[in-house]
Amino acid sequence: MKDALANMATTEVLQESLYAELSILYQRLENELTQLSPGCNKCGTCCNFSAFDHVLYASSIEVGYITQYVEVPDFNIADNVCPFLKDNQCSIRGFRTLGCRIFYCNPHYKEIMCELYEKYHFMIKELSKKYDYQWEYLPFLRQLAELKPKSSLL
Ligand code: SF4
Ligand code: SF4
What we know:
Number of domains: 1
Structural class: mainly alpha
Strand content: 5-15%
Order of helices and strands: HHEHEEHHEH
Bound molecules: iron/sulfur cluster
Shape: globular
Radius of gyration: 16 Å
């Protein structure tokens, strides 16, 4: 029993350390994006995936980071709208995924954003190896639905 508790405590410490490193990566990305200044009026349209004909993918680390620190509202996966979109605004900006941060509808930035995505995606994957965190890369809503307690899903 003592060993089990010690293992749980170790896992929690490792996860906190992993998420702290992820947060630093996100901050580095934000600094790069500020330099590029691609422009976004925060209309929230791209967070309605059907309206934008877009599938947001995310890794298990990114989704784990969200579910660790943020309460996931009830949502219906068939609606294909991010449950964190409130009044056309992202309600979890500090925790949003790499894909959320990199997506800009301005086509002039498509190529550079693809490069940035690959760069940070690689670094997040390296984190999963460093912390021996199970790596999955799937549509965001699907992962969110899997991690959310079943009783609160519609
Ligand atoms: S990237 Fe474009 S669609 Fe998405 S919130 Fe910004 S302006 Fe709106
Ligand atoms: S987490 Fe925020 S930015 Fe990402 S899809 Fe949801 S509402 Fe949009």
